[in-house]
Every structure is written in C-alpha cells, then in structure tokens.
Fold this protein.
Amino acid sequence: MSKRLLVRNGSVVTPEGVLELDILCDGGRIAGLFERGAEVAADEVVDAAGKLIFPGFIDPHVHSRDPGLTQKEDFAHSTLGALVGGVTTIIEMPNAIPPVDSVAVLNDRREQHEQVAWVDFGLWGISIGDSNLHELGPMIEAGAAAIKIFWGYALRKDTKQLVYNLGDEPLENVILPPDNGTVLRVFEAVAKVGGLLAAHCEDRDILASSEADLGHPIESYDDLLRARPAIAEATSIAVASQFAKSTGCRFHVVHMASAEGAEVVRQARSQGFPLTAETCPQYLSLSAEDYERIGPMMKVYPPIRGVQDREALWAAVNDGTIVSVGSDHAPHTVEEKAQGLGTQPAGGVGCETFGPVMLDRLFRGDTTPERFAEVMSTSTAKLYGLYPKKGAILPGSDADLTIVDPAATWTVRNEELVAKQPTSAWNGFELTGMPTMVILRGEIAMKDRKPVGAHRGRFVPAKHGER
Ligand SMILES: [Zn+2]
C-alpha cells in the first residue's frame, strides 16, 4: 500500500493562475486536487498555510563533471545541491569524460547516475559533428532530452573535452570546431527524428578578432566584455535561426546573456521559426556593476553584461521570448577559481542557488508567479519532452512539488553549500523567498535545506515528437 500524502492550505501556482487547492499524492503521482478544506482521507498531512506550491523546479543545464573530472564536482553533490535548493529534476549536460556521444554511453550514464541521484534526471546527448551523426536519432529514441553541439569549440581527440584555446593543443590532438556546413548537417539529422538541438551561441570568429583587437591579455572586467561582445551572440543566434527555419529542426539557445541576442530570438519566433531560448539566474540577477563586489568569481561565458541587458532578459522572460531558465552549474576547483580574471576557467556552482536566486527576483517583482512556474518548470518540461509527467500539478502527473516560504530569507555562504567546490558568485548575498520543502514523487525529500530519507532519483526518458 502506498502512503497517501495530503498537502493542505497552500497557494498552488500554475501557468494559468494561483489556485487555493489541496493536493493529494498517492503512488508517486498526483491523485487529486480538491477545494481547500475538503474532507480527504490521507496517511500524512503537510500544512502549507502561507506557502506557495510550485510544480517541482526543473534545472535543465547542469554539468556535474561526472565521470572524468570529479575533483570539480560529482553527480551525488550536484543533485543534493539541487534538492536542497528546491529542484526535483535536473537535465545533465553530456560533456563528461567520456561524453554522451552514443546510446551505449547514454545507457551507462543512466545506470551510473541512478546509484547516487538525489533528484530525478534527464540526460543530454552530444553532437561531435560528422563523427556521430548516426547516433543522434538512436540517442533521442533512447530518451535523451536534447542534443548539444559545442559550436565553435575544438575538442580533444582522446577525451573529447572542450579546448578553450586552440593554441594550447598541438593540432594533431584536436577535432577542429565544426564548420557551418557540418552544423547544418547536424540540424538536418536532429530534424529527421523530431529532436531538440541546442548550442552555446557565441560566434568564434568574432570572439577571435575581438580578442585580437584588445591587443593585451584580459586584465579588467571591461576587457572581458570587449573580448566577448554581444554581437558574437546575436550573430550566432541569427545563423542558427536560419538553419532552424530551413531544416525545421527545433533549436534552443542556451544561457542567452544579451539584449541583442534576445531581440534576434524574438524576431525569429515572431516569424514562426522553431527557435527557443534559455537564460540563467546569473544573467537575471547580476550585472557588470556587481564585479566590484564579487570579483573574478563571476566569470562565466557568455559574460554577465550591463544592467540594460539584465532588464532586456527579464522583458524576454515576461513576453515569452525566453521559455526556460537553467543554472549552468559548471564547477571548477576553488584553486582554479582563485586565479585572476584572465586565466581562471569560466563557470561556477549554481544548482543549489538556482531556485533561491530566482525566487528572490520573483519577490522583487521582476515577474509574476505564473510566468515563474512556466520558466522554472512547466515550459521547461514541455521543451525537453518531460511534460506532463514533470512540470505539472495535474492528476496523473508525478507528485513533484516545491513548497516556498515567501518570507524566509537565506544568506548564501560558500562554506555552507553542498557543492564539492563551493565557488558561488552569490557568496554573502541575502536572498528572500526560500524553498522550505520538496516533495519528490509523492514523498517528502527535503525539509529546511536538509534531505529527508535516502537518495532515490531516477532517470526520466524524454518523449519527443508527440506534440
Ligand atoms: Zn553549460
């Protein structure tokens, strides 16, 4: 007999509105929604008075570095961090060692991660140009949530790790960045099977010439912005939108960071091109002005830009141009992140602060609870083929709930984070509005930032081509 859990007295946030409903969970699913106070038999009751109840947050952009780079992070730590931050499902990026470039690796990775996962998870597959074109369809059929192509990046031949600076490696050791002809073939291959393709969009030729124009190594935050101008992002998105239009392939811009990029996506979508975009909490809550306080720890690619970019990204969230938010949890070691701005690797921890940072912005009035539920859960689930199993508070959906106390505050402290290498850009920031409980498939899995019970995250296969 499964336990019937009733969540009473909360305000249930859905994309359609905030509803005063009681939620009955049974057998891991949502068994029914009832008018507040209705007589419902249950084995356990959670009183959510004064709380907002969201469909469980989904973080679709997590690099757990596992296997291969587990000195930086591992799957147990990233999924525990996600859980205590209010997330019920993550989608893991494919660039571990070895990368998820075939069905065989996808199945291995699924089995490996199920041993340690604290939350449910999907898996990305990787495109390595022409060399694994024939694996893209089978990976999508095996349940991959999407295919990521590292457009503009060379890869090491042995490990398929990204090469950030081509000059660092002897040419015989690298797979050169895919040219646009190859990228177009990848769009065609993914279109054929109804999958979703995504990429980091920053045009590599523009980055190279901007860096050359700078004429000296990056010393200040302004140098970093000059070396990676917004036109690089906008140009790359414009090319992708033409490829999406001509092939019919659904294309998703990950971690979009500029007003210019958002405008290209908006125009392409208004013409009916199958283009969507993601942004991240760092681009929605920080700006270049925060460099003085945070320092090099806020180095990410694409870089965090000006206040006007942050505001344009919120406008894009609110008008539907941006459909999903992801953390881009991309940890490096504390020692690596302690290097100067020019030399340290881009990226940092983010899955534990993903929910709290976004909630802090919600309660500052940057968006509505309804739109928040969409970009943090519902439309993310739809995009990656997980809906309505995930991303919905509807009878039959997985009973994944994130319960939020709008009045609770939390000061982020690196030493209290779950991450193996705690290097948060928000270290010292006080945030308002906290996930105080997570229900994962009908059972309480987190309370007051502490896990409850054992880890029991499962792989969630994506279903594409059903819409
Ligand atoms: Zn990423």
